[in-house]
Each structure stands twice: as C-alpha cells, then as structure tokens.
Amino acid sequence: MLRALWSALLDIVYPPKCPVCRRPVAAHGAWCDVCLAGILAVRYLNPAGHHFKALDECLVICEYTGGVKRLLHDMKYRQAERYAVHLQWLLAEGRAEGILESCDLIIPVPLSAGRLQERGYNQTERIFKDWCEKNAAGKWRGDVLVRRRETLPQWELDLARRRKNIKGAFAVTRPEVIRGKHIVLADDIVTSGLTMEACAQALKKSGAAKITGLALSGGGQ
Ligand SMILES: [Zn+2]
Q1: Alpha helix ranges (H) inside the chain
Q2: Tell me: the pLDDT tens digits for 77-103?
Q3: What pTM does this model have?
Q4: pLDDT in tens, 34-87
Q5: Each residue of 112-126: pLDDT tens digit?
Q6: How remote is the CA of residue 35 from the centroid of ligand 1, in Å?
Q7: Which CATH architecture has domain 15-218?
Q8: Residue spans per domain, the chain
Q9: Which end of the chain is more exposed for a tag (fewer CB within 10 A), N or C?
Q10: Distance, CA 30 to ligand 1 centroid (Å)?
C-alpha cells in the first residue's frame, strides 16, 4: 500500500519518460514505441558465421545503434549508472528471461581490475544482476571469471589484432563452482563475438558443460 502510494507520488513529481527522446511513457524504465521499434531485434547469432567453438549459442536482444548505443556509451564513460533500469527494461521487452530457466549459473563478462577501479562498476553487472536475481534468483555469479590483463577496446582493432588482443585474457578462479554446469554468459555488446568466445573457452577448459551467450546488443560498431 505504502509502496503503491510512493510510486504514484513519484510518477507525479518525476513523470516517466523515454530515455532517448523524453516522450512520456507508461512506466519508469520504459522506452517509447518509436525509439523501441528502431532497436529491438531479438535473434540468435549464427555460430558458424562467428567461428564459435566453445560458445554454443548466443542470443542478442537489440541492435547496437541509436538510443542503446548512446545509453551504453554514457554508462561506460560518463558514469550514467541511472540508465541500467532502461536497459533492463529492454531485456524484459525482448523476453530474454526465457533462457535463464534451463541454465545453472549466470556469469558476466568481467572487466580488468584496473578498468573496474577507474569506472567504479562493471556496466554489464549493473544491467544484468538485478534483472537476473528477479528472474532466476541465486544463479548470478560475478566472482568466478576474471580478466587477467588489460585489453584494448576490440572496436579499435582489425580482426587479426582482435584475436591476439583477447587470447588468454580470461581465467576461472573457482573451477569447482562451474564444473559440469550450463552457464549463461552475459555481456552488454557482442560484435565479432571474440570476447565471448574467449570467456567461453576459459569456462569450458575449467569444466563447464554448455555456454549460452546473452548480449543486450549486437552488430554495428
Ligand atoms: Zn523515445
């Protein structure tokens, strides 16, 4: 009752708006139909086309363009943590929770310790963690996969350099947690898929049984 009243009051003081064009929307976190239509594109990537070996499949929810591109950029480089709720809303809108049911664990693609300190948070964790706890309580594990060294942003490099850049960058700290498990590997963006593939390789080398990628956005640069 109190919560409903508080929420109604909040809607009057801060009416919910689309994070991209500021049009009024029905609920906090929501996007307007126009901005949503320009980005929502739920699909599985073709594993052969992306040379996935360890990564068994990868579901992508949006195109990496328009509003998603801007919100993710601001989360990474302008401390705009407040956008997490709008990006979680896209996961729900794309019915991404369906793939959480059959998995055992959900693991985010990690940042290096240096990058984490600089940014103060891992944007992938900020986007996915609460949403995962809501839809698959107890499956989130942010402490078993680490990025051993700093890597250059993949988009700055050509394909050959991307491979070299990411090779052996990830390590599993607690193999006993993931052995024999079906893991959903979460990331904010998938482009070439090499980062997810490198994570999947590290996880499978430590005994994981199956890796399903889940990327909020994909394609584009
Ligand atoms: Zn809009």
Answers
A1: 2-13, 33-37, 66-77, 84-93, 113-119, 123-135, 159-166, 175-178, 194-205
A2: 998 999 999 999 999 999 999 999 999
A3: 0.91
A4: 999 999 999 999 887 888 999 999 999 999 999 999 999 999 999 899 999 999
A5: 888 899 899 999 999
A6: 4
A7: 3-Layer(aba) Sandwich (3.40)
A8: 15-218
A9: N
A10: 9
